[in-house]
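Blinded run. Sample ID left blank on purpose so nobody reads anything into the name before looking at the predicted structure. Input follows.
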Amino acid sequence: MKIGLIAGSGQFPLIFSKKAKEKGFAVYAVAYLNEADPSLKDHVKVMEWVHLGQVSRVIKFFKKHEVSEAVMMGAIKKTRMFSDVRPDIKAISLIATMLHTHDDNILRAFAQVLEDEGIRIRESTFLLPELLATRGCWTKRKPGRSEKADIEQGWNIIKKIGKLNIGQCVVVSGGSVLAVEAIDGTDATIARGGKLAKKGAVVVKACKPTQDVRFDIPAAGVQTIQTMREVGAKVLVIEAGRTVVFDREEMIALANKSGISIVGQSDETQDLKSAPFDKTRHKIRRNPQTKNSGQPVSPRAKPEVLRVGVVGVGYLGKFHAEKYANMDDAKLVGVVDIDTSQAEAVAEKFGAKAYGNYQELMGKVDAVSIVVPTQAHFAVGRDFLENDIDVLIEKPMTVTLEEAEELIRIAESRGLIMQVGHLERFNPAVVALRNIVKKPMFIESHRLSVYKNRGTDVSVVLDLMIHDIDIILNFVRSEVKEIRASGVSVISGHVDIANARLEFENGCVANVTASRISMKNERKIRLFQKDAYVSVDFASHEIIIVHQKGEAAENPKSKTELIPGMGVDRMSFVKGDALEEELKSFVKAVKKRETSEVTGQMGRDALKIALSIMEQIRVRGRA
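Blinded prediction complete.
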């Protein structure tokens, strides 16, 4: 694999080259004279020095070495852009077509020229997502009340002046703006503002709204803290997900030693982990079909490409990793498994990093799939939520109702997305039922499976039946008033076959059967409602509707009259990828900060019924 590198000053090009080499890339570098570090040549396959403005030479170099993808990184002193440029004909032609020659516009136009020549420009962090700033207060010292007011003011100002292409940094103290970044850069801005403040200044650094972070992303590091220390500044705020941080541990250590706070913030909303929860800053969107199903979600923005991870990459988890790896708007950053060889195999296959401990994902991901044994769902889910990371937890969401309610509480208090992995919600046949099933009064479901040595760590009620419980609750929309259940353990140490009769407050009755020791696989549900009978085969993705004429959607080609006055419609669906649709739904909810398709409350409601069924079976077994 080949990757091109257009290198300016600083350590970013060096860090990238080393990581690219580790990942198996051969790096072909174009380095700007008087900017790039000469030692870069030791970490790349081929390097060529060029002057600023030599656009044709850059293109010729990449084409010579058959490079079709490249990254742009490292600083260029803005003062040199006006004094030390040797533009070739292509550069002159490029600039001549531009209405505004801000550095942002020049970089964007340069990138477009490269892409027009068949050289795709990739995000500078595509191999280094761990460098991106995370949300929260990173240091022992937290911002005080007056500093929080300065943070809010500074954040609003930096976003407004960013629209004018002025700069990425502002210094505030006591409600006054002391310095705004100009052509001299961030460190000089901190020095100017800090001297005026005498001590206690707040430094806010963020992306401009129109900034193209593929090649122009704010950076912070030890030098930033050192400059703040010299002028007595006390708070650094950087934009989470849109700022790269170098030497993070050293930076935090120096900040702690100097009594400086570092805060990662996003989308004009003060970080929830370091500030009191403010209900007025959150909106609750409810699924109109389900009572008490809404969960508060934070309006904070997520990066354009979501950083995701998978914890547990066994049989099911590896498919989660595969689906994420193939998404355009998500980046699989890391996979975790206690079997490190399995983690490494999956990571290598899908271009991610392998870990043996899920704690190592903290700070590296925005969202995560938790696909570990059910007994570990609560502990793992709680840790990610408490680190402000959105989660998708496989069903059943927890072992106990108390654990489920605690996860819901944490997610709601922090404005986080929590989705439960009830996969059948995304089966094409189930999706189609939303417009067909109105008010069912009798339901019969069978979910039978041949024996597999998988999922036997829990009862068949939690392994299989819970799918149908969730579907039934979603369609009936009424409280369960009575449950009668029976079941038996045949092969495993848990119940392997079970039947339950659910009676609802609205009069509906559901008869639910699940078995993992059947001679055949069968997944069917039949729903009876006024004037219609609906039969669904989940395996074949087929729906049969028997209805009074005129009551269902017309389909003359498939309709026959088997019963006087009744018609039959048959609907077939191409086999879809329910898991892919489920994960896309989760990613969409996280990025748009909207209620997930299967909320924590919905997962909790299905779990409550499943646990009640299991308790009845347990009591019957002792009788």
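Unblinding after everyone has recorded impressions. The chain has four domains: 2-121, 132-265, 294-419+593-598, 428-575.
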